[in-house]
Amino acid sequence: MKSEETPFEGGPMDGRSLPVLVGPTGNPPKTYRIPVPDDAGGPPTVLVYRRVPRAHSKRLGLPKGWKYEFDPEGKRGGGPRWPWSKPDPAPDATPGGKPDDTHG
């Protein structure tokens, strides 16, 4: 398998470069998860980094290389929304899905 030196920005890995395996298209994975063991023996903390373009070409605007930026939220997302996928629950949704009746 082929690997590519990829820089990391933000978070604990800021300024470091790691060799990341690239896929058949020559691109690294969209997310890179780094498990950090807990000193007290608890569950490991997982650092999440998202792939972003390093630069764009002048003429066509295509990405020229990739880098990873720290995602402190660590949430999944950014992928396609399929019709059969469960929708994310809204944080301020009214219980029962009905709006409040203001007209009595």
Task: Please characterize this protein's 3D structure.
Residues 66-76 have a biased composition (Basic and acidic residues). Residues 1-43, 64-104 are annotated as: Disordered. 0% of the residues lie in helices and 31% in strands. The protein is mainly β and 104 residues long. It has a domain at 3-74. Strands 2-1-5-4-3 form a five-stranded mixed β-sheet, with no helix packed on it. A hairpin with a 7-residue loop joins strand 1 and strand 2.
Q: Uncertain regions: pLDDT < 50 for 5+ in a row?
A: none
Strand order of the largest sheet: 2-1-5-4-3
What percent of residues adopt helix (DSSP H or I)? under 10%
Main β-sheet description: 5 strands, mixed
Report the span from N to C terminus: 67 Å
Class based on secondary structure composition and strand pairing: mainly beta
Order of helices and strands: EEEEE
Indicate the proportion of strand residues.
25-35%
Taking all Cα atoms into account, the compactness measure Rg is: 20 Å
Mean pLDDT, to the nearest integer, reads 82
Give the count of helical stretches. 0
Overall form: globular
Q: What's the count of strands?
A: 5
Provide a compact summary of the structure.
Residues 66-76 have a biased composition (Basic and acidic residues). The chain is built from no helices and five strands. The protein is mainly beta.
